[in-house]
Amino acid sequence: MTADIRKTKIVSLKLDDPLYSQLETQAVENGENINDLIRRLLSESMEDWCDYCDTVRRLSDDEDRPVHIW
Questions:
Q1: pTM as predicted
Q2: CB neighbours of residue 62 within 10 Å
């Protein structure tokens, strides 16, 4: 995964030992380094969150529509 260095931000993240170990194990199993694993998981989580918000918004919009019974 390459990124334009001017558009890359660095975040300091405090993790407790058990969580770090779990992430490290998962990264090794996936053949990734821990930074790539965390970046991928955050990206996937954000995509899922946006999909969830869009779904909730659409459902909310549907409830506001008048219902016609034939």
A1: 0.70
A2: 9
